[in-house]
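A further point concerns the way the authors explain their paired sequence and structure data. Showing the layout once, in full, would remove most of the difficulty. For illustration, here is how one protein appears when written out as sequence plus structure tokens:
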Amino acid sequence: MRQEDVVQVSVIEREAFPTQWPATSFERELRNKMAHYLVTYEEDDTEESSADRGGGAEGEPNQSQAQSGEDKLLSRVLTGVRRLLSSEQTAAQAVGTQKIVGFVGFWLMAGEAHITAIATKEEYRRRGIGEMLLMSCVELATQLNADAVTLEVRVSNSGAQALYEKYGFTRTGRRTGYYTDNHEDAFIMTTDRISSASYQTTLAILKRNYQKRWGIAGEP
């Protein structure tokens, strides 16, 4: 995340967490050496993305032509987060002029990546973007040599819990009255060692399944 992303990210946070107070000071987070943020953006239809280049055999449609609707949209969004992970320079050139559709943030402390927020713009929800952000977060935490990833989740949010469990998070505790809006409890959920061979194998399988489900080529 960069300074010019703050306005769009703040809007997404307000949409996702309307009762949160105070709002996150993303300007301060950018100065916090422990904080790490990824944003994902939708590429402009007029730009040729790395996911859309090239075609098949003669007479066959290329990936851009074959995709439509949600698949093509998700391809553009996934390309955005891939660029953020693979090329800081490319991201710096692109994100400032693109529509940000989601973000994830975590603090890296004592070898543990603590996810502070993960959110998707309202009209882009239920399209796999939140899962893609979670995968990207785990990838970045691995690159930063974190031992594990942890987070809090509302006890009533069974959908989010199911996603986290899918990626190896298990309940390790409970915080009473954690959420200030209604004093709901939170489950603490934590992964095993993310650099372990077993976890990385599981993550690779999940990534392949994700790509197959959403019809996306390449790594998210």
Residues 3-126 form one domain. The mean pLDDT is 80. The first strand starts at residue 35 and ends at 42.
